[in-house]
Amino acid sequence: MKRRIVIADDDPIIVSLVALRLGLARFDVLSASSGPEAVALVRQSEPVAVILDVKMPGGGLPALDAITSDPPPAACR
Question: What is the pLDDT of residue 55?
Answer without folding.
Answer: 87
